[in-house]
Amino acid sequence: MSAKTDLTPTPESPGLHVVKPHPRMHAVGSYICGSCKDTACAQGDEHVWALIQDFTYFHGRAHTEEGW
Q1: How far apart are CA 48 and CA 41, in angstroms?
Q2: In the sheet where 39-43 sits, what is the strand order?
Q3: Contact 47, 54 (CB under 8 A)
Q4: Three-state DSSP class for residue 46
Q5: Tens digit of pLDDT for each residue in 11-68?
Q6: Between 8 and 38, whose confidence is greater?
Q7: Separation of alpha carbons 65 and 4, rounded Å
Q8: Is 19 helix (H, G, I), strand (E, B) or coil?
Q9: In this structure, are residues 59 and 35 in contact, taking their beta carbons and an 8 Å threshold?
Q10: H-run or E-run covering 32
């Protein structure tokens, strides 16, 4: 029996989380940036894709590798 884990980002455990339980269902996503504490959430495949791009561009490598 495996334990179910809640992977939703929190201030203590920041990051990006995306769920699409079934191909015919809409995706849901959220993030909390570990550096600047910015948050965002989205529903629907296109909106979640934009959320992923936003997190990756502004909060991923931008904070950790480019000196933000």
Answers
A1: 8
A2: 15-19, 28-32, 39-43
A3: no
A4: helix
A5: 888 889 999 999 999 999 999 998 888 999 999 999 999 999 999 888 876 666 555 4
A6: 38
A7: 33
A8: strand
A9: yes
A10: strand 28-32
